[in-house]
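Dear colleagues,

As part of the handover before I leave the project, I'm documenting each prediction I ran so the next person doesn't have to rerun anything. This entry is a single chain, and its sequence is reproduced below.
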Amino acid sequence: MKNKWSIAAMWLLALLPFILVAAFYARLPDEVPMHWGFDGEIDRYGSKNELWLMAALGPLFALLFQFLPRLDPRKRNYEKFQKYYDAFGVVITAFVAVMMGIALVEAFHPGTVSMGRVISALVGLLFLFLGNLMGKVKPNFF
């Protein structure tokens, strides 16, 4: 990633889940919803400690988005689609942050969010974005 605004936005969004979990951790119930079926019903509860693992996805993705182009043997191709790559990094970390926010809302008030509809809509929007992006990305190793 080269655009400093994209990097800053991506890291802000990547760290947001950690901030949210830290802010609400003491008030979270010991067991929180961790998985929902296609019908939107909770089908697995887990320890509130598992939320830290979910929060770690954002920084992990942010690191990968910054360093994978350096490992790519075709690294010069990234210059041809850099702005799209930067947008991809921001959108993926935003997606993870939104998912964490939804998980926290459901931890405090199960059944508040229609998970089947919300997740389907979010994944659909993500696929629309990715489908639009793929035609603009040049060949690369990853």
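DSSP finds four helices and two strands in the chain. The CA atoms of residues 125 and 131 lie 10 Å apart.

All the best with the project,
I.
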